[in-house]
């Protein structure tokens, strides 16, 4: 019954106003006198205005949504501008414009309410107006703004009309990144016998041949004699290049101890920060996320790799409670010999010890980042065990990634 009333509220409102008009007319006819006719003629403008509001074409009202940015980083503000225009200058008593907010932004942003994107206007005879609202501190994620609604009515509330306008805009919010300046990925020294803390480079003493220059080659690799002889840029080809492949693995499985998801958001931001720093060192970066499904982004060292990974990081969320080590085992064959594996997670388990031991026997270097809200004994104990195995470990409990330094301790490799 109520649903039918809401659906036909305008019709019921018009009928009710007409009934009141008939009552006022009947009262004036039977009662007579100045007062009764004054009431009747005083009601006529209300009737006329109500009927015009009921017949007013809401399709004449057009709204355009303009985003200040469609891509931004977490904690940055998003400014949304709504431009309203119309052709019929009828004086609507009020007009409510609401920009319907994505469900996930209302869930993630504790200080943002749907009422913040709702505005009450008194247009008068204006043909257009502009509204602006700002969402401060946008949380990471993908947000789809799908529709707006407009609502108007008469002075006494007899008539209420509403229309929804489908306008879709997508906003992608990347994780906030703070590349640690004092940290750099581990590297395997010549022969893979020890860990090198130096930036990735080739062994310049082992020149195998000469080849033509390829964009991205360093200036120090150019062979000037061959360049002068052939009149083309020629680059030295090294026999034993140091492996600078970095595979970054992010655990997206649900952690029961992280109910608010704060540690997970920090781990996503950390993964993005480490990725950007690794790409700065001219390493090839591959990216793996483990959740309900395991997704693999191939090794690349091109500038677009950063945006491929950031697009992925913006969309991921915690899901599933599967054991990470089981999922990673399926992708071990993709890991090249003597690569560096950076593992970021919010929880630890004994299965990780077995996984890392297996990876290290394959000649892979492991750097482990445990992200938690605060220090905990279980995490510290497992970190000590991993460190004893030769895994470089970091315990991250805040967002100050600049404090990260190169891991300590030697790592034996096969």
From TrEMBL:
Pfam families: DUF58. The chain crosses the membrane at residues 36-59. Signal peptide: none annotated. The keyword Nuclease does not apply. It comes from the Bacteria. Keywords: Membrane, Transmembrane, Transmembrane helix. Residues 210-350 form the DUF58 domain. PANTHER family: DUF58 DOMAIN-CONTAINING PROTEIN, SLR1927 PROTEIN-RELATED. This is DUF58 domain-containing protein. It comes from Pullulanibacillus pueri.
């Amino acid at each position: 019954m109520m649903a039918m009333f809401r659906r036909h509220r305008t019709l019921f409102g018009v009928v009710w106003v007409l009934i009141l008009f008939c009552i006022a007319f009947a009262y004036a006819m039977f009662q007579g006198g100045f007062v009764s006719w004054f009431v009747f003629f005083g009601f006529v403008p209300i009737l006329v205005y109500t009927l015009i509001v009921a017949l007013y074409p809401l399709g004449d009202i057009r709204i355009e949504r303009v985003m200040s940015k469609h891509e931004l980083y977490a904690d940055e503000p998003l400014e949304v501008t709504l431009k309203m225009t119309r052709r019929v200058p009828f004086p609507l008593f009020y007009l409510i414009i609401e920009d319907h907010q994505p469900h996930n932004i209302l869930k993630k942003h504790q200080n943002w309410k749907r009422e913040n994107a709702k505005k009450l206007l008194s247009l008068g005879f204006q043909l257009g107006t502009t509204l602006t609202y700002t969402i401060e501190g946008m949380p990471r994620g993908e947000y789809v703004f799908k529709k707006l609604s407009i609502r108007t009515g008469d002075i006494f509330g007899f008539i209420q009309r509403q229309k929804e306008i489908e306008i879709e805009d997508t906003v992608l919010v990347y994780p906030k990144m703070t590349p640690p300046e004092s940290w750099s990925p581990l590297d395997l020294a010549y022969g893979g016998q020890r860990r090198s803390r130096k930036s990735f480079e080739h062994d310049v003493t082992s020149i195998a041949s000469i080849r033509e220059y390829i964009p991205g080659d360093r200036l120090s690799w150019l062979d000037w004699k061959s360049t002068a002889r052939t009149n083309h840029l020629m680059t030295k080809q090294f026999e034993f290049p140091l492996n600078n492949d970095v595979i970054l693995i992010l655990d997206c499985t649900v952690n029961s101890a992280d109910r608010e998801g704060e540690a997970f958001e920090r781990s996503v931001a950390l993964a993005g920060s480490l990725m950007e720093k690794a790409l700065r060192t001219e390493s090839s970066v591959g990216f793996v996320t483990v959740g309900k499904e395991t997704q693999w982004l191939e090794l690349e060292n091109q500038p677009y790799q950063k945006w491929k990974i950031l697009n992925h990081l913006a969309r991921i969320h915690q899901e599933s409670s599967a054991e990470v080590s089981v999922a990673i085992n399926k992708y071990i064959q993709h890991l090249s010999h003597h690569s560096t594996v950076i593992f970021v997670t919010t929880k630890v388990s004994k299965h990780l010890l077995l996984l890392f031991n297996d990876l290290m026997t394959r000649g892979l270097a492991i750097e482990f980042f445990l992200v938690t809200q605060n220090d905990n004994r279980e995490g510290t104990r497992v970190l000590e065990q991993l460190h004893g195995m030769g895994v470089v470990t970091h315990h991250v409990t805040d967002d100050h990634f600049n404090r990260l330094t190169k891991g300590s301790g030697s790592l034996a490799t096969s």
